[in-house]
Amino acid sequence: MQTFSQFSTKQQLEVKKEVGKLLSEGLGYKKIRRYFGEQGIKLSLGTLSYWCNTETKRLRNNSFTAKPSKELAYFIGVMFGDGSATTDQKNQDYSLQLSSIDKEFVEKFSFCVSKLLGKEKNYPVHKLKSIFGTNIRSKELYQFVKEIKNDFEKAKPFIEAEPAEFIQGLADSEGCPKISASNIFLIGVCVANSTNMPLLIYTKELLVKFGINSNINLNHKSGEQDSIIEGRLITRTKNVYALNIQNFRGTKEFFKKIGFSILRKQGKLEDAIEIYERFTKNNQLEEWKRRYNKQKNKRWKRLCSWSASSGI
Q1: What pTM does this model have?
Q2: Rounded to an integer, what distance in angstroms lies between the CA atom of residue 255 and that of residue 248?
Q3: Domain 70-162 grouped into CATH 3.10.28.10
Q4: Contact 239, 226 (CB under 8 A)
Q5: CA atoms of 254 and 120, how far apart (whole Å)
Q6: Phi/psi at 179 (5° precision)
Q7: Which of 140, 18, 6, 138 is nearest to 67 (CA)?
Q8: Quick one: average pLDDT of 85-110?
């Protein structure tokens, strides 16, 4: 006899729906338990009671059915990047979170999850100091994330239905424009930084479908101390690799066909492409430095707010 916890996410959802149907027909817990027992499925009376009194209400509000969509592909990209999934099994609390300095990134994530869970309104985005965040509760969506992270093959049908959205979700999380403005002006895109080599290889193959060639390079070696979090120097325990687009043609194709949903990233990339195309090599550096200033963290920051203007 199988227990409920041994089932896949899809099977668990089917069982819960069947329980809800039997409850609506007036069957009691013992009869429902006996019904499933005859099918080789073990359900405790405590679990049935909990579903009826609490979780069935949440299921109506936060139920999730996996089917291909732009929102699901973007969501998967983010969950393999900055998104996180946590659980407090004692309190039956299953959560998905995203935090970022970019409000529009968190808002798009909230929009996508709201669509996946059938919400009329987006989940709220809160701000703490300079960080924006959102927190969504859904056991089914949490279990889906755990399932595709345990077996990436299960994610591929949803990704390949909308590959641009998946790549954008990953790039919003882990990528950025790459600008070199020392001696000559060069531009490219880092699509993602990750310790997950199969993920990067798969994304590289997806980029080829858009006519974009890319390379995977070692970015940080295991044992390096190169990051500071809350005042603590962090030592990397694994090699970190970067998926990079290093030629101008591929960079422009990425901008046009995929892009970032984050305004400061997409705006910086648009500025760089415009300068590369409109100005001579002798004037490219001057124009870039007229618009951007290099910060102590070695990142380029625009000297005034960005607004779409070039129409590339």
Answers
A1: 0.78
A2: 11
A3: yes
A4: no
A5: 32
A6: -120, 125
A7: 140
A8: 89
pLDDT digits (tens, 9 = 90+) for 280-293: 999 999 999 999 99
Distance CA 60, CA 139 (A): 12
In this structure, what token pair is assigned to residue 156? 């591929």
Pick the CATH number of 175-295 from 1.10.490, 3.10.28, 3.10.450, 3.40.50: 3.10.28
Q: Is 116 in contact with 72 (CB distance < 8 Å)? A: yes
- Cα within 13 Å of Cα(165), Cβ side: 18
pLDDT computed for residue 256 by the predictor: 97
Helix, strand and coil in the chain, % to nearest 5: 50, 20, 30
Q: Where are the beta strands (DSSP E) in 149-272?
A: 176-181, 185-194, 215-220, 225-229, 232-235, 240-245
Q: Identify the weakest region by mean pLDDT among 22-31, 69-78, 124-133.
A: 22-31
- Give every CB contact of residue 282 below 8 A, 6+ residues apart in sequence: none
